[in-house]
Amino acid sequence: MDERRTVKVSKYLSRHLRHQPERIGITPDPGGWVKIDTLIAAATAHGFRFTREELDHVVATNDKQRFVTDGDRIRARQGHSIEVDLGLPPATPPPYLYHGTVAGSLDAIRAEGLRAMGRHDVHLSADRETATRVGARRGRPVVLSVDSGAMHRDGHVFRVSANGVWLTAAVPPRYLRFPGPR
Predict the structure, then answer these.
(1) Residue 4, pLDDT above cutoff 80
(2) Any domain includes 88
(3) Is 162 among the domain residues?
(4) Chain segment 119-132, per-residue pLDDT in tens
(5) Of 9, 23, 83, 105, which is most buried, counting CB atoms within 10 Å of its CB?
(6) Residue 182 lies inside a defined structural domain of this protein
(7) Domain check: are 121 and 155 in the same one?
């Protein structure tokens, strides 16, 4: 499977498993799981064909490990805008986590902190390198440090997905460290 096809199938899966399952007539269970055969049949009926082998390739090779299969089911690991319960238990974060963004977002972040926006949670990275890659998707990246240790001590709940993405409802501005002068 060539890289362009892999990316195309991955984006299709993200759109329909995380955001718009109703668009192709699928209904994830409360945990976000969809039967693979149902997903493939619905995609085919809506003009986007892919095979189980292609799906397995995307799941296995996706650089962010966005998807997970369990027998005959698949779901996105995180990043949903639809209502799902991923069943992730609360976890104690490392002292600092990181968030990649772009300079154009900094004024709003300084005022409001990090918000989940259309997702269920704010996504944080355990290392600067990952946060840099995330921020670079939208332009020149800016990496913010999050005092997650202080947040946790103050009662904020964190969860971590199997692919290492840290999730929390929001990050108030007081827990953020901005790079360089304002």
Answers:
(1) yes
(2) no
(3) yes
(4) 789 999 999 999 99
(5) 9
(6) no
(7) yes
